[in-house]
Design brief:
single chain, 508 residues, alpha/beta, Rossmann fold, 9 strands, globular
């Protein structure tokens, strides 16, 4: 009941703000017009609340699923639109223009629906918890080169055999000689190698036994269930078996649109393509319709998502390259698939972080990385390392809007919930993933778990420029905090505040 009252009050404020916003957009003085239209506004507001109560809009917390959460809002607001239109016909006017009335309704509806979607995301994350698999020390499996199944001479000899020539021709016909030349550098072909161009897991199940290298030249963008396909390949291959696949990444796809059309037309078409083939498959309201129409083909997938899905299905990346507009990967089976059903896929994510006394806490953030990015943290770290001991250099997992969110700290707003719960304090070392935690010096790992992580890390107070300086900054803060907790956090907060506000310190 308390939540319903709070939501009702906040909803009334939302409508008032939407009303003022529409007035301002029309170039009028908001508060002057608001006073003039106050009587008509209050009458419509009462009607708005009544329709909301009739359609149970203010009790959406008990609804499950995004569709059932949003539908009461849409139904209530449509009913209000109908009732308001009827009053306009009967009374001639309501003291509020039609543009102002329906502009306010449209604005309020969009914001209400977004808020309901956010609440639904929180609810789902809380229900899912953490299920993904990790090794003994909590880190992702390390990347390693595949153990040769044959010698290079044996591989070259095999390619001259009848079976080898068939494989060679199949690859060249499908993706070109450049792709074959690159694959020969990274794959040891043998009589147990097989080339396919399929998107149905049944084709993998029906392969003959003793296959140790599977090369599938059908784009992963056309797989109806990508993870199920990768999991089936994993089951078919022996330990250290090699899987080669390809696809069109989001980055390559964008370049293709901009190159094929004029810059303006290419960008517009790319945005439309992105909304259809990237956004629609991810929304509960549209994904069923999308998959019925497209059967899951031609989806937009980023490089990070493709690699992350492979890691989540028990593979490690040996090599990756682009040829003729296709992104190729060479992956090695390092373990059985974990069948993870809770990747960071939605706009709100709950991340595993090391807290005080090494307790694993769930930290909420707005997603700034491509889906499945958490699975390739070790891989990306091995490629680029860090620039200052904290952030990974040239981290391709971060989306364009994610970089903006990080610059403005928008992505960290949900962490306020962790602060209210007591998982985090205001000032403290940054909460780290298990992999990132294990890359820190051992002495610092031991000190970090003596205190709770914080929203404002000492990094912003000291602004270290090197990895060594970064570690020393955290070490110095922890030593000071353990001696004088309140005084230390007070001093560090105002140092960070000065650097952020007056010196432009930002996250990346």
């Amino acid at each position: 009941m308390r939540f319903r009252i709070i939501y009702l009050v906040s909803n009334l404020l939302l409508v008032a703000l939407s009303f003022l916003l529409v007035i301002a957009l029309r170039g009028q003085e908001p508060f002057v017009v608001f006073q003039q239209r106050l009587q008509g506004f209050l009458m419509l507001l009462a009607l708005y609340v009544l329709t909301g109560i009739l359609f149970d809009k203010y009790n959406f917390r008990r609804h499950t699923g995004l569709r059932k959460t949003v539908l009461p809002i849409l139904y209530a607001n449509l009913a209000f639109a109908g009732a308001a239109s009827a009053l306009l016909i009967m009374l001639g006017h309501l003291g509020v223009s039609r543009v102002l009335l329906f502009g306010t309704l449209a604005t309020a509806t969009v914001i209400e629906a977004l808020y309901a979607a956010l609440v639904d995301s929180f609810r789902k994350l809380k229900q899912k918890g953490f299920t993904y698999e990790k090794n003994n020390n909590g880190a992702m499996p390390a990347v390693s080169e595949p153990e040769p199944q044959t010698t290079k001479t044996d591989s070259e000899s095999f390619m001259m055999s009848v079976h080898g020539m068939v494989l060679r021709k199949s690859i060249v016909d499908e993706v070109g000689i450049e792709a074959l030349d690159y694959l020969k550098k990274h794959v040891d072909f043998s009589e147990h190698s097989i080339v396919l161009a399929v998107n149905n897991p049944l084709n993998i199940v029906n392969l003959p036994p003793h296959v140790d290298t599977i090369i599938n030249l059908h784009r992963v963008n056309d797989h109806r269930r990508v993870n199920r396909f990768f999991e089936t390949v994993n089951l078919k291959l022996p330990q250290n078996g090699i899987y080669v696949g390809c696809g069109e990444t989001q980055e390559v796809r964008k370049k293709r649109f901009l190159k094929k059309y004029t810059p303006v037309a290419g960008f517009v078409l790319y945005v439309l393509d992105f909304l259809i083939h990237r956004v629609m498959p991810k929304l509960n309201l549209t994904q069923t319709l999308y998959f019925k129409i497209t059967r899951g083909k031609n989806r937009v997938m980023s490089r990070a998502e493709i690699l992350g899905r492979l890691y989540s299905c028990g593979f490690a990346i040996v090599s990756e390259f682009c040829v003729n507009g296709l992104f190729f990967f060479v992956a090695k089976k390092i373990k059985r698939s974990s069948y993870d059903n809770s990747p960071t896929y939605g706009p709100l994510v709950r991340l595993r972080r090391i807290g005080k006394d090494k307790k694993v806490i769930g930290v909420y953030k707005l997603r700034t990385m491509h889906p499945y990015s958490e699975y390739i943290q070790a891989y990306v770290y091995s490629l680029h390392g860090t620039c200052d001991g904290d952030k990974i250099t040239n981290d391709f997992r971060i989306t364009t809007w994610g970089r903006i969110f990080r610059k403005l700290w928008i992505d960290e707003l949900p962490m306020l919930y962790n602060w209210l719960r007591g998982d985090l304090k205001l000032v403290g070392v940054r909460p780290l993933s298990e992999h990132k935690f294990n890359t820190y010096p051992e002495y610092l790992q031991e000190k970090r778990v003596l205190t709770r992580p914080g929203l404002v890390p000492p990094f912003y107070a000291d602004m270290p420029q090197t990895e060594e300086a970064f570690y020393e900054s955290e070490n110095r803060y922890i030593d000071a905090y353990l001696k004088h907790p309140i005084r230390t956090d007070w001093q560090y907060f105002w140092k960070a505040f000065r650097n952020i506000v007056f010196r432009g310190a930002r996250s990346s």
